[in-house]
Design a protein that fits this description.
The complex is a heterodimer of chains A (227) and B (443). With 227 residues, chain A is of the alpha/beta class. Chain A is built from 3 helices and 11 strands; from the N terminus they run βααβββββββββαβ. Chain A starts with a strand and ends in a 15-residue tail after the last strand. With 443 residues, chain B is of the alpha/beta class. Classes of the chains: A alpha/beta (227), B alpha/beta (443).
Chain lengths: 227, 443
């Protein structure tokens, strides 16, 4: 295992060392010490690496990740795993706002709570939050799956496209064009599979499903008040 | 004849409720929806035609045309990037999306720009192989929607442009109506086919300049600090925006005035939000100068650039380069009179067509219709654009030489005068024949 101690080296050193693995990938296991909330840790990874960040991370940790499996042994700042393509990011603590923003693939697991706009404009990733999510989560979500094992704040799924949203707890309010939907067998299976992948022990039957009413897909003057 | 009518010599149209205004009221009453269109502001605005150059004479020494050099090469992104972009002409191609434009049009833009050694720019929809393949210098836009955004394309880019706004709609998000969301466009944007796509107006994972500084560092980390990072703003509070962009870490700042084009925006937005390009440049330059960053952070200006005179005037006011969008499309064949009958068949006319959002462009440029798209040959389109870019460059050089400058960037405000009080105040150059700059000195 390679260790980078951010008390002695810079974020630039860390990312360059991880990027340099792309060609040969001789070192697959990495440990990052003393992150102390620094921003942009382990961003733009492009290889099947395993990166353990031993502490809190700042903004955009794991941003644009491809293939790597990143674990934050603490909380993460804004935009964790933003635009992730594949691989996984696991946050042992809480995550700030815009977790998994625009993420295209891969799995983001937040073992604590996530702030506002979790999964904003997500484009195909899977996001599992063990705790609660803040307001406007999944705003303009396009594709993928958002699972919330706790409660969701105001305006969940506002202006939603095709993300599948599952919430176990209370939803304070639904956003424009987001509605509760029937939980059919295929959804139980989808959720069950995803919970298992995320390592989260929950009963899929305890969740409700939400999705797009698809009423705002094409402009109709009758819907003007919803815009 | 009544007593009243015998004195009426001609019909009098209301200046307030003219025929165009009344037609819009009737259209709104008929449809219940605001008017959406492409192009940029069509109202008359103070513009570069209101400025003139003071050519050399006794007090200045002109350069000999065609024999004495006048450099047009500009390097963009010298502040932080390991690989700045070198462009051979100070005219670049502005961001326009695949989706708004056909793949052939994007390819033609790449071909034309590459032929003269300048850059072209992606748009709200990702990078197409056609565009990357034909563009030797490609700027990759990083937009609020992040449609098609991925690290592989990010690393293929020669520069990254973080888009905060657009001159045609500062403060507004994009829209691409369902007619143009074909299977390929939908796939690139991860959207259902045929939806009216609404792009966000704010970025999803940062909210202010302090956040943006961290975002820019993320992009630099992902690309190992190789390529320049631009920040593009629509011209509004330009002085403050430019200062904040510099503080956030931009290598290059792009300021797009309200004459800048769009593929689809509400008419009310296009005509009533933003400031003219000419008014924005001095604000931007002042901000850069006060921070000691003029020429260190390069300034690109866009919005209504049509000819070499406009290019030279922008540079005299302090820009390092300009970007063209609408003019580049016209060079490709947009609004070409040869399609006049077809424009009329869809309720427009050559020279007036702005319904880019409908996807029925007879010239095959702002469409995803496969048959219409075929009308634009990307090789011929590229040749036409390259010709046009060469003319812009030659014209701008001609004016610079006449002012005694051996480098386009040696042009300066002192070379300009204004024809109107408004343009003198906005451009901060004297009213012609006086030494009066309104707003700078007492009359």
């Amino acid at each position: 295992m390679k260790t980078i101690d951010l008390a002695k080296q810079t974020v630039r050193d860390l990312n360059q060392a991880l990027h340099d693995q792309a060609a040969a990938c001789t070192e697959t296991e990495w440990e990052v010490l003393n992150p102390k909330g620094q921003h942009n840790l382990a961003v733009g990874l492009d290889q099947k690496l395993k990166v353990d960040i031993k502490g809190h991370a700042g903004y955009y940790c794991g941003g644009m990740n491809k293939e790597a499996d990143i674990v934050v042994h603490g909380s993460a700042g804004q935009g964790v795993a933003e635009n992730m393509m594949s691989g996984s990011v696991r946050v042992k603590g809480n995550a700030s706002s815009s977790a998994g923003a625009t993420s295209i693939g891969g799995l983001l697991v937040i073992e604590g709570d996530a702030g506002s706009r979790c999964g904003i404009s997500m484009k195909g990733s899977d996001i599992v939050v063990t705790g609660n999510v803040g307001h406007m989560s999944c705003f303009m979500g396009q594709a993928g799956t958002l699972v919330v094992c706790g409660d969701a704040g105001d305006a969940l799924g506002d202006s939603l496209y095709e993300v599948h949203i599952y919430v176990k707890g209370e939803v304070k309010s639904l956003g424009a064009d987001c509605i509760a939907k029937e939980m059919r067998d295929e959804h139980i299976q989808e959720l069950s599979h995803l919970l298992k992948r995320a390592g989260v022990d929950e009963d899929p039957h305890a969740f409700k499903r939400y999705g797009s009413a698809r009423q705002l897909y094409n402009f109709k003057v009758d819907n003007a008040s919803a815009y | 004849m009544s007593e009243k009518t015998k004195y009426i010599t001609e019909l009098r149209e209301s200046a307030t409720f003219d025929r165009s205004t009344m037609a819009e009221i009737r259209r709104a009453a008929d449809t219940g929806i605001y008017d959406i269109r492409g192009w940029g502001a069509k109202r008359k605005l103070p513009h570069f035609d209101d400025l003139l150059f003071l050519g050399a004479s006794m007090s200045r020494y002109p350069l000999e045309g065609y024999r004495e050099k006048c450099n047009t090469q500009v390097t963009l992104g010298t502040r932080f990037a390991k690989k700045p972009i070198v462009i051979e002409t100070p005219v670049t191609i502005a961001g326009m999306s695949f989706g708004a434009l056909s793949a052939n049009a994007k390819e033609a833009l790449g071909r034309g720009a590459s032929a003269v050694g300048t850059s072209t720019t992606t748009g709200d929809g990702g990078m197409t192989p056609e565009e990357r393949g034909q563009s030797t210098k490609l700027v990759y836009q990083y937009l609020p929607s992040r449609y098609g955004m991925n690290p592989d394309d990010l690393r293929k880019a020669d520069a990254i442009e973080v888009v905060l706004g657009q001159g045609a709609k500062p403060g507004g998000g994009g829209m691409l109506l369902g007619q143009k969301i074909t299977e390929r466009v939908a796939k690139m944007r991860t959207l259902p086919m045929g939806v009216d796509q609404r792009s966000a107006c704010r970025h999803p994972d940062w909210t202010g300049p302090d956040d943006l500084a961290i975002k820019i560092l993320e992009l630099r980390e992902i690309t190992d600090w190789q390529v320049p990072i631009y920040i593009k703003v629509g011209a509004t509070r330009t002085y403050y925006d430019v200062k904040l962009a510099v503080k956030a870490g931009a290598d290059v700042i792009v300021v797009d005035g309200m004459q800048g084009g769009t593929a689809a925006t509400q008419e009310v937005f296009i005509e009533h939000v933003g400031i003219p390009t000419m008014a924005a440049i001095p604000q931007a330059v002042q901000a850069l100068q006060e921070m000691g960053m003029h020429r260190k952070v390069q300034l690109i200006v866009s919005g209504g650039i049509r000819n070499g005179a406009d290019v030279a005037k922008c540079m005299a006011l302090g820009a390092d380069a300009v970007a063209i969008g609408t003019a580049a499309l016209i060079a490709l064949g947009c609004n070409d009179p040869k399609y006049d009958e077809e424009f009329k068949a869809i309720g427009s006319a050559a020279g007036f067509y702005d319904d880019y959002h409908e996807g029925r462009d007879p010239a095959g440029i702002s469409t995803q219709d496969p048959e219409l798209s075929k009308r634009l040959d990307p090789v011929e389109g590229g040749r036409r654009l390259a010709n046009y870019l060469r003319v812009l460059t030659l014209e701008a050089q001609t004016l610079a030489r006449a002012c005694g400058k051996n480098d386009m960037r040696n042009l300066e405000p002192e070379d300009l005068v204004a024809l109107t009080v408004e343009s003198a105040a906005m451009a901060r150059v004297p009213l012609a024949g006086t030494n009066w700059i309104p707003g700078q000195q007492p009359f």
